[in-house]
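My main concern about presentation is that the manuscript never shows what a single data entry looks like. For the editor and my fellow referees, an illustration may be useful. For illustration, here is how one protein appears when written out as sequence plus structure tokens:

***
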Amino acid sequence: MNAGHEQNLKFFNLPFSSKRSSIFLFVITFLLFLLLLFRVKSFDLFSLPSISSPPEAELNGTRPILNQLVTFFPLKDLKFADRPTSGRTWFMSSFNDSFDGGDSQYLYFPSMTSNGRFLCISARDVSNGTRNSYALAWPEALPDGAALLPGLTFVSDTFYDYDNLWHGLGALLPFASWHQRKQCVVPARWVLFHRGELRTTMGKWVRTLAEATIGEVRIEDFGGSDGRGGGVACFEKAVVFRHNEGAMRKQRRREVYAGMRCRARAHCGVVGDRWEEDSMVTIRLTLLLRLGSRAFKNESAVIGIFERECARVEGCRVQVAWGNNMTFCDQVKLMRETDVLVSPHGAQLANLFLMEEKSSIMEFYPKGWSELAGAGQYVYRWMADAAGMQHKGSWQDPEGDQVECGDVVDQHKCFGLFKDGKIGVDEKYFTQWSATVLKEAKEMKLIGNGQLHIPSTSCLCM
């Protein structure tokens, strides 16, 4: 062994005095361990156990601390004002969404992401969402004066409203999907917001659809009718949708629309498959017209064109209706009896999902829509595709009312001058277009032995 290696070994050898110290420390440590063990055993054998504080007493001590940890934030976060409907949105902006395969984004409380805490809301303002607020609170330490509302609560925030058929349907769709996926659960209450502002009503059509497809609708007004005095309310369970249908995939939307169609028909007593009632292959064309904005200038001329073309197709029948004087169930029945829907752009077209799948839609616009309306002009085309219908195109009046934007630079403001214009008539185009659509509908029915769809099965949640 060389000298260098011997020096390295000597470096790790302890001197004699160090060895004695180490042995001494080991013996002392061992004796202390034995003494401690003896004391513990003696305590277990000869001492009475101490009486611990009851859980309630411990909670009373920690409640003030937990209460102080409850922090309220504005429901409407103006930091996201430039992108209110994208990403997190400005509604409850501190939370990230959860996803279930193919469905819309949502928030659920209590959950692992909320650390078991309840959602609490203080909301009375109907004009400024920044004055309404939300927080998370432990079940054992709710905010002072807060009421705990039992059961499941549906919480909705929409950028639009709950009165218009199209807007309201978009807000309902994710809740109908949740209802279908979660063993047909019915909420104890609904809490509605529009851009963080409290809403306490739904339009009649929207509310009836919600009750037909989900169950009884009770809208929370935070008015203190239960003694809360309009204070803070915390929810035992709450699901929040703030993107309408959001990221819901097309196949899932089709399934949800089918379930809603079935439930709406059952609610209205419109049951069975219509094709079974037809003694022959029948094409039913419906003109669903409007009064006032976006109405046809010459309704009788438009009706005459479609009646004439329908008469040239064996088994074709024409129905004419105005959505403003029909009940919800009237509209459900009418759509069930429609294969080809002819209508101006407007909320009445939200009924299209109530038709049989593969039915056809023909849509009409006043002048200015294709240039100024933006993506909004395509909503019923997208809806038709999602619901399994066939959108057969649209026609815009090339002439229309003589309106000039003048010094108006903003496209949205300029569109406001055209939005509710009347719609003219192009007899030649309408004749050719209707003939083509009716021919295609007839051929499809012949291929399907008189039906445009697969016969429906029993409704979900019935």
